[in-house]
TrEMBL record:
Catalytic reaction(s) noted: (R)-4'-phospho-S-sulfopantetheine + H2O = (R)-S-sulfopantetheine + phosphate
Organism: Pontoporia blainvillei (Franciscana)
Record lineage: Eukaryota, Metazoa, Chordata, Craniata, Vertebrata
Single GO term (MF): kinase activity
Protein name (record): 4'-phosphopantetheine phosphatase
Domain of life (superkingdom): Eukaryota
InterPro entries: ARMT-1-like_metal-bd_sf, ARMT1-like_metal-bd, Type_II_PanK
Residues passing through the membrane, by range: none
This protein's UniProt keywords: ATP-binding, Coenzyme A biosynthesis, Kinase, Nickel, Nitration, Nucleotide-binding, Transferase
Length: 249
């Protein structure tokens, strides 16, 4: 379903993702959020479809969005969940990716969660099933969603009404192989007819899916933290990728 920007998916690609992060941290052990903000490329970005995306937002809301999340911490709390909240506010019903089979975790039971009916549309936020680097996991997403729901009525009502669901990808990798997703997730996406796919992070959006041609609208978002990859794309370290694509007619 996607083409790898490099020789092969498993070994080399994952090592390049890890290597990029290691170079950044070793060059400055005190490197943190403020340092990262100062190094980010200013617009126009290396790949910059942001204006095109803003124009799209003036149109009707998406029916079903699938979001593959990347890092834990600030990234998911101040980046992903506000984006999910915005989609909910636009009228798109959201599913944050997690396994639907089996008994409900205590957090979902506390929200009064119920399975959506066949006519419900969703946004599916994909979190790893197991740990990889600093990526957010499904179990972490349950905790984060619960705490956000305690503060925010939009997220709380979406969880209670089954418009915001927590699901997992079946992966424990910093990359994303769209041909090896959790079966339950793949079936759900097919049933709901996703019309927007958001792939976040260098490993998932660039190393493994940069040239993936999807059948619906897509956003591929990343900051380049690998010098080899930055040069190959014609940029530099901390170049920004904001790639919005619409399928060919």
């Amino acid at each position: 379903m996607g083409q790898v920007l490099g020789p092969s998916l498993p070994a080399r690609t994952q090592e390049e993702v890890r290597g990029g992060l290691q170079v950044v941290l070793e060059s400055d052990p005190q490197f943190g959020f403020e340092e990262a903000k100062r190094k980010l490329q200013e617009r126009p970005w290396l790949v910059d479809s942001y204006g095109k995306w803003l124009q799209r937002l003036k149109g009707p809301p998406h029916k079903c969005a699938l979001i593959f999340a990347d890092n834990s911490g600030v990234d998911v709390i101040l980046g992903v969940f506000p984006f999910v909240r915005e989609l909910l506010s636009r009228g798109t019903e959201v599913s944050v990716e997690g396994r639907m089979a089996g008994p409900l975790p205590s957090s979902r039971a506390r929200w009064g969660w119920r399975r959506p009916g066949p006519l419900h549309v969703q946004v599916i936020l994909a979190c790893n099933s197991g740990p990889a680097l600093n990526d957010v996991t499904y179990s972490e997403s349950l905790i984060v969603a619960e705490r956000i729901a305690a503060m925010d009525p939009i997220v709380r009502s979406a969880l209670r009404e089954g418009r915001l669901l927590l699901m997992q990808t079946g992966s424990s990798s910093p990359c994303l192989d769209l041909s090896r997703l959790d079966k339950g997730l793949a079936v759900l996406v097919r049933e709901r007819g996703a019309d927007l796919v958001v792939i976040e992070g260098m490993g998932r959006a660039v190393h493994t899916n940069y040239h993936a041609a999807l059948r619906c609208e897509s956003l591929k978002l990343a900051v380049i933290k690998n010098s080899w990859l930055a040069e190959r794309l014609g940029g530099r370290l901390f170049s920004v990728i904001f790639k919005y694509e619409v399928p060919a007619e």
